[in-house]
Design a protein that fits this description.
This protein is an all-alpha fold. It has helices spanning about 5-20, 25-40, 45-65, 65-70, 85-130, 130-145, 150-160, 165-180, 185-195, 200-215, 220-230, 235-245, 250-265.
Length: about 270
C-alpha cells in the first residue's frame, strides 16, 4: 500500500476523535481526503474492501454527530462503489461548514467592533466631562481585553489629542508603537503630538524614522514641514515642502509652504 493510502487510513481513524473535540470541518476533510486517495490509488480487492469498511464507519460517525447535523441535516449516504457520489456530498458539506464558519466569524467581528465602539464612546463622554482619570481606566480595561489591537490604542490617543491632553495621547501612542514597531502612521502621530508639546527635537527624530520607512509619502514630508514651521527652521521647512512637491506636484498646501519658507529664509 502506498504512503498516500497509509496516510488516508490514518486520517479516517481520526474522524471520531475530531468530532469529539468539536472539530467537524477537519473530520469531514479527513474523510474527503481519504476517499480521494482511495479513488486515485491502486488497491487489491482485500485492501479496497478494508478501505470501504473504514469509510463506512467514518460516515456513520459523521451522521451521528449532533452539531454536524445542525449545519447539514441531510443523511450522508454511502455504499461500497458509490465513492464518487460520496465525494460530491462531502464537498457540499465542506462548503456549508465553511459558510457557517464565515458567518460565525463575521458575527463575532461585528460584536467585537460594537463593544470597542461603545467603550470609545463612553471614554469620549468622560473626556468631555473632564474626567480624564476615569477615561484612562476605562480605556485601559478595553486595551487589556484587546491587547494586540494597535489601531485601538491609536484611536484612544486621537481622542486625547483632540481634547489637548497631549501627554496622555503620547503614552498610548508609545504603547501602540511598542506593540507594532512597523506601523508608520504611529511615528507620524507621535511627531504631531510632540510638535504640539513643543518637543521639536524628539518630534524630528520620529518624523525622520517614519520617512526612512516611507519616503514616498508626501503628507509625511508636509507634516515634517509643519514641525519646522513651529520650530522656525525655514531651510528645513523648504526642503520638506520640496520633497512633498516632488512626489505630488499638485500639492497646493505644500506649494504654499515652500513659498512661505523661502520668504522667511530670505528675510
Amino acid at each position: 500500500m502506498s504512503s498516500e493510502l497509509m496516510n488516508a487510513r490514518k486520517k479516517l481513524a481520526t474522524v471520531s476523535t475530531l468530532l469529539k473535540q468539536k472539530k467537524p470541518m477537519p473530520a469531514v476533510q479527513a474523510v474527503h481526503d481519504a476517499v480521494l486517495a482511495m479513488l486515485k490509488g491502486s488497491l487489491m480487492k482485500a485492501e479496497r474492501e478494508e478501505f470501504q469498511e473504514l469509510i463506512d464507519s467514518a460516515v456513520h460517525c459523521l451522521n451521528g454527530d449532533k452539531e454536524l447535523r445542525q449545519v447539514y441535516p441531510l443523511i450522508i449516504s454511502y455504499s461500497p462503489g458509490s465513492e464518487k457520489d460520496l465525494m460530491a456530498t462531502l464537498r457540499e458539506l465542506l462548503q456549508e461548514l465553511q459558510k457557517n464558519v464565515s458567518e460565525e466569524a463575521q458575527s463575532m467581528a461585528q460584536l467585537i467592533a460594537e463593544k470597542k465602539a461603545e467603550g470609545l464612546r463612553k471614554g469620549q463622554e468622560l473626556i468631555d466631562n473632564n474626567k480624564v482619570d476615569e477615561a484612562k481606566k476605562l480605556f485601559n480595561k478595553l486595551i487589556r481585553e484587546y491587547k494586540n489591537d494597535t489601531e485601538l490604542r491609536a484611536e484612544i490617543a486621537d481622542k486625547f489629542i483632540k481634547a489637548n491632553f497631549h501627554e496622555e495621547a503620547l503614552a498610548y501612542l508609545e504603547e501602540a508603537l511598542a506593540n507594532d514597531p512597523d506601523a508608520i502612521f504611529l511615528y507620524n502621530r507621535i511627531g504631531i503630538v510632540l510638535r504640539k508639546m513643543k518637543d521639536f527635537e524628539t518630534a524630528e527624530k520620529y518624523y525622520l524614522k517614519a520617512l526612512e520607512l516611507s519616503s514616498s509619502d508626501e503628507y509625511l514630508h508636509f507634516n515634517c514641514g509643519r514641525l519646522y514651521y513651529d520650530w522656525k527652521k525655514w531651510d528645513k521647512m523648504a526642503k520638506a515642502a520640496e520633497k512633498a512637491l516632488e512626489i505630488n506636484p499638485n500639492f497646493a498646501e505644500a506649494e504654499k509652504m515652500l513659498k512661505f519658507a523661502k520668504k522667511k529664509a530670505g528675510a
